[in-house]
């Protein structure tokens, strides 16, 4: 039973920990990543129940080290998604945030690349703006002394420094 509990604990934490990277690298979709979280929590709960049964009724099959490792793995598998859910409950359910709520920028260069995206490219309007105002009251437009070309060059350099984790799509339009 010890190996079974250890295996279930490992599976639980892997379901949770791997969901993000697998989604990020395009190996699974967003819905599958959330499903991984969900099943990671369920598997973690099952592993905790099995660990408790093992410790109560089959003590001779459990070692302190193995039990602690299983407990840490399962608690991690449960705590990460629950923490994320708690954070999500405290912010508005919007996917687009802008510092210009009256005239938000339009995504032109990327619109074709996001044609099949689950959320629209267009800003959702005044209702979303109001939710944003309530959820993120500190968000505001930053002002700089540099010229627009200097700021674009600095932003482009910052993106290039991210070593390929971002792609640059340029829409040439005067601000």
Compressed to H and E, one letter per element, the order equals: HHHHH
Mean pLDDT: 87
Helix percent reads 55-70%
Q: List low-pLDDT spans.
A: none
**Which band does the percent of strand residues land in?**
under 5%
List keywords for this structure.
175 residues, mainly alpha, elongated
Model description:
The chain is an all-alpha fold. Helix content is 57%, strand content 0%. It is built from five helices and no strands. Helix 1 (2-24) packs parallel to helix 3 and helix 2 (30-57) runs antiparallel to helix 3 (64-89). The protein is elongated. The mean pLDDT is 87.
Provide a brief overview of the structure.
The protein is built from five helices and no strands.
Could you outline the blueprint of secondary structure elements for this entry?
Layout lengths: L1 H23 L5 H28 L6 H26 L36 H10 L12 H13 L15
């Amino acid at each position: 039973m010890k190996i079974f509990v250890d295996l279930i604990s490992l599976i639980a934490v892997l379901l949770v920990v791997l969901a993000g990277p697998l989604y990020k690298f395009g190996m699974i979709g967003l819905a599958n990543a959330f499903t991984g979280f969900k099943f990671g929590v369920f598997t973690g709960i099952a592993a905790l129940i099995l660990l408790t049964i093992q410790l109560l009724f089959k003590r001779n099959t459990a070692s302190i080290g193995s039990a602690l490792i299983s407990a840490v793995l399962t608690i991690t598998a449960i705590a990460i998604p629950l923490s994320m859910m708690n954070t999500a409950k405290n912010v508005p359910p919007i996917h687009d945030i802008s510092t210009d709520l009256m005239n938000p920028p339009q995504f032109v260069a990327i619109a074709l690349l996001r044609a099949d995206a689950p959320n629209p490219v267009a800003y959702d309007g005044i209702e979303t703006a109001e939710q944003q105002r309530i959820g993120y009251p500190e968000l505001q437009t930053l002002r700089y002394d540099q010229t627009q070309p200097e700021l674009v060059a600095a932003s482009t350099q910052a993106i290039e420094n991210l070593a390929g984790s971002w792609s640059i799509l340029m829409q040439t339009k005067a601000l």
